[in-house]
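ok new one. same drill as before - C-alpha cells go in, u give me an amino acid for every spot. 312 of them this time. try not to just spam alanines like last time pls lmao
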C-alpha cells in the first residue's frame, strides 16, 4: 500500500488492531447503544470501547479510519530512527494558538492567498522530537517525518497528526455521560506545536505588514488588492520557503473572522453578508523573525532534498 517502510509498517500495525465495524449513526442513536459502553471518542466516527478493549468504527472506514495510522506511524518513526532524544517538553507551549486577525469591515477588490498544506509544510521540515522553548532557535532532534511525500495527499491523516500532538483534552463518554479528560503528556508534543503556531504567526505578521492583509485565519490571508497576490506568493516562497497559492480574486467583502465572500463575477453576487463581526487580533509575535525565517528556510531546504519525491 505504501512505499515508505515506516508507513507500510504502520499500515500493518493498524490492520492488526482489534476493530469492529458498525453503522455509526445507528449505534449512536437507535436504542442508545452507546449508553452501554465507556467510549474514548475519536475524530472521525470512531471510538475506543474501553469496556471491551476494541475500536468501534463506521463501516465506511474499512479497513480502518485514517486516524488509526497516527500512533503506529509515530511509533515507527521512533523505532526506525533510534528513539527520541532525552528532552524536557515546554508544556506552556501547548496553549499556543494559530493566528487570527480581522480589523473591520472591508469591501472592494480582494484576493486570498493560502499556504499549501500548511501544517504539513511546517512539521515535515522539523522533527517529531523538536526542541523549542518559544523564545530561542529551534533544535531538530532525531525523528524525521519519513515518508513525508506519501503523507501529503492524505489530507485527513496529515492534519490529524497535528491534532494528535496539539490536543490538550479528549472527549470520553462514560455510559452516556460526557467527560473532558486531559490527554496524557506522553502523546502531546508541545515544543513542535508551539513552533508551528509561532511560525504561522510570524508569517502572518509579515504578510500584514508588507501586503496589508485585512484578514488572517491560520494559513490564509485576504489582501486588499488583487494585484498584490502574485507578489505575496513569491515572497512566501523566496523569503520563507513556503509554497502558497492564490485561491480567489475579485470584488468581495470581509465582514468578520471567517465571514467573507469574493465574487469573480460580480453579477453573481448572492446578497450581503451578516452585520460586521467584532475585530480580533492575536498577532503579537515578539521573537526574532529573521532568525526564525532563516532557520525554517534551511530546514525546509533539507527536507526537500532528503525526504520528498519532487514528482509530488
Amino acid at each position: 500500500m505504501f512505499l515508505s517502510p515506516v508507513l507500510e509498517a504502520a499500515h500493518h500495525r493498524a490492520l492488526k488492531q482489534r476493530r469492529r465495524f458498525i453503522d455509526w449513526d445507528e449505534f449512536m442513536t437507535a436504542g442508545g447503544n452507546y449508553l452501554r459502553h465507556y467510549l474514548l471518542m475519536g475524530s472521525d466516527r470512531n471510538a475506543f470501547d474501553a469496556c471491551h478493549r476494541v475500536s468501534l468504527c463506521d463501516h465506511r472506514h474499512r479497513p480502518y479510519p485514517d486516524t488509526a495510522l497516527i500512533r503506529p506511524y509515530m511509533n515507527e518513526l521512533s523505532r526506525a530512527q533510534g528513539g527520541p532524544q532525552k528532552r524536557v517538553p515546554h508544556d506552556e507551549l501547548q496553549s499556543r494558538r494559530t493566528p487570527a486577525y480581522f480589523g473591520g469591515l472591508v469591501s472592494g477588490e480582494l484576493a486570498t492567498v493560502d499556504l499549501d498544506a500548511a501544517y504539513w509544510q511546517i512539521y515535515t521540515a522539523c522533527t517529531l522530537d523538536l526542541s523549542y522553548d518559544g523564545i530561542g532557535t529551534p533544535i531538530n532532534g532525531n525523528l524525521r517525518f519519513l515518508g513525508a511525500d506519501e503523507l501529503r495527499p492524505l489530507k485527513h491523516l496529515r492534519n490529524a497528526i497535528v491534532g494528535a500532538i496539539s490536543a490538550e483534552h479528549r472527549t470520553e463518554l462514560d455510559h452516556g455521560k460526557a467527560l473532558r479528560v486531559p490527554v496524557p503528556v506522553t502523546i502531546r508534543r508541545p515544543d513542535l506545536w508551539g513552533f508551528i503556531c509561532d511560525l504561522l504567526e510570524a508569517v502572518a505578521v509579515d504578510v500584514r505588514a508588507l501586503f496589508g492583509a485585512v484578514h488572517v485565519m491560520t494559513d490564509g490571508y485576504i489582501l486588499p488588492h488583487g494585484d498584490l497576490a502574485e507578489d505575496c506568493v513569491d515572497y512566501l516562497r523566496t523569503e520563507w520557503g513556503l509554497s502558497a497559492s492564490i485561491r480567489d480574486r475579485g470584488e468581495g467583502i470581509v465582514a468578520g473572522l471567517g465571514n467573507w465572500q469574493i465574487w469573480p463575477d460580480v453579477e453573481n453576487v448572492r446578497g450581503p453578508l451578516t452585520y460586521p463581526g467584532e475585530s480580533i487580533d492575536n498577532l503579537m509575535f515578539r521573537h526574532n523573525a529573521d532568525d526564525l525565517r532563516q532557520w525554517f528556510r534551511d530546514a525546509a531546504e533539507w527536507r526537500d532534498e532528503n525526504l520528498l519525491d519532487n514528482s509530488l
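The two ends are 17 Å apart (CA to CA). and btw Residues 152 and 158 are 6 Å apart (CA to CA).
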